[in-house]
Amino acid sequence: AEAIALYAEAQALVGGPSSGLVVPSPTGDAPRRGRSRLRAGRCPFEMQKFAMVTPRRDSGADRPALTGARVLVVEARYYEDIADELLAGARAAIAAAGAEAVVVTVPGALEIPQTVAILLEAAARAHQPYDAVVALGCVIRGETGHYDIVAGESARALMDLSVMLRLPLGNGILTVETEAQAQARARVAEMNKGGGAAEAALAVLALRRAQDAGRQDRTIGFTPRRTSETA
Q1: Quick check: 176 and 138 in contact, CB under 8 A?
Q2: Taking the model in full, what pTM does it have?
Q3: CA-CA distance, 155 to 159, in Å (whole number)?
Q4: Active site positions, annotated
Q5: Which residues contact 103 (CB under 8 A, 6 or more apart)?
Q6: What are phi and psi of 102, to 5 degrees?
Q7: Cα separation, 216 vs 226, whole angstroms
Q8: Interval 128-187: pLDDT, tens
Q9: Nearest residue to 85 (alpha-carbon basis) of 182, 199, 158, 201
Q10: Which of 192, 224, 207 is nearest to 132 (CA)?
Q11: What is the mean pLDDT of residues 80-91?
């Protein structure tokens, strides 16, 4: 049934049965043709925007309780106004889950991974470990290759920490071309990427707790939705 539903969605995306693109049938029936929505002579890869799957909360009934969880939030304040919005979104998401946010500020995005590693080790020694981590910051492309180093290396180091330590970690470091893009993504009233990073970390934490308790939860309170917004 799920395959048939996906097939129907694919047919709708290519424009129906009139002509053009072919969508294979999951039932083995003859493929149906759809009308392409692409302009004549345009390659599909030239389309300006692509659909993106983003997390969305279900109704609160199925949400796992995360009361008492300690979430380390490490934020870079290179851009103060953007940092304010990212932090506000993350704090709200953590509070909504009943968890506690511990916020630490560093100068820039490259300082976030090592700060996370230092604080995780210190918290473990003090027998007050963190349950999840949220990284917040912003990198805006400039005239040199420094952007690529900061964006790539901060993301790589955070992913290495997360996988090595089996650590729920939400990466809310914006990597954008312009300050306007950063503002739109940071603002809680708009794309709220700070809140999204916190929710991602909390989702993985909920999954880990479910597995530790021996539950085989297939979902953790999040479902995909399609949006035309770019990342």
Answers
A1: yes
A2: 0.70
A3: 6
A4: 146
A5: 73, 74, 75, 87, 91
A6: -115, 115
A7: 26
A8: 999 999 999 999 999 999 999 999 999 999 999 999 999 999 999 999 999 999 999 999
A9: 182
A10: 207
A11: 97
Q: Is the CB of residue 172 less than 8 Å from the CB of residue 86? A: yes
- Are 190 and 132 contacting, i.e. CB atoms less than 8 angstroms apart? no
pLDDT of 231: 62
Exposed, middle or buried: residue 157 (CB in 10 Å: 0-12, 13-18, 19+)? Answer: middle
What is the sign, positive or negative, of the torsion defined by CA atoms of 117, 222, 50, 174? negative
In single-letter form, the type of residue at position 210 comes to A
Q: Which two tokens stand for residue 26?
A: 């999951």
Structure tokens at 113: 């991974």
| DSSP state string for 24-61 | --TTSPPPEEE---SPTT--GGG-S---EEEEEE--GG
CA atoms within 13 A on the CB side of 20: 16
> Is the distance from CB of 170 to CB of 137 less than 8 angstroms?
no
Judged on CB neighbours under 10 Å (0-12, 13-18, 19+), 19 is exposed
